[in-house]
Design goal:
109 residues, 4 helices, mainly alpha
């Protein structure tokens, strides 16, 4: 009886370990996807901003992206709201470079 309980506990602990590993793998994949998505949005938006144009859809996507770079994103949006395309372009370029040099899993909050 005691051996059976110990085996059941070992199986339960093993399952929890696998579940935790799966969670971390999914979490890491989500962060990598967020990194690529943010980078993609910024590159597309930069093409508009360089020409002193807006793309409301991309700006909305940018604001909705969950990222630890929310302060930088807010600075970009603020510059666009003020029609300061040069500042927005500079901020976009700096954030793109920052993203390219940071690990893919560091984007999400």
């Amino acid at each position: 009886m005691i051996k059976l309980i110990l085996k059941l506990n070992a199986v339960t602990l093993g399952t929890q370990k696998i579940s935790t590993e799966n969670y971390h793998a999914v979490d890491r994949e989500e962060k990598e996807n967020a990194h690529e998505m943010l980078l993609s949005i910024l590159v597309k938006l930069e093409n508009y901003v360089i020409n002193n144009e807006f793309n409301d859809e991309l700006i909305d996507e940018l604001q909705e992206t969950k990222t630890k770079f929310s302060q930088e994103v807010n600075m970009i949006v603020s510059a666009l709201n003020d029609f300061d395309f040069e500042l927005a372009s500079n901020n976009i370029r700096m954030l793109i470079e920052q993203l390219k040099s940071s690990p893919k899993t560091s984007v999400s909050e």
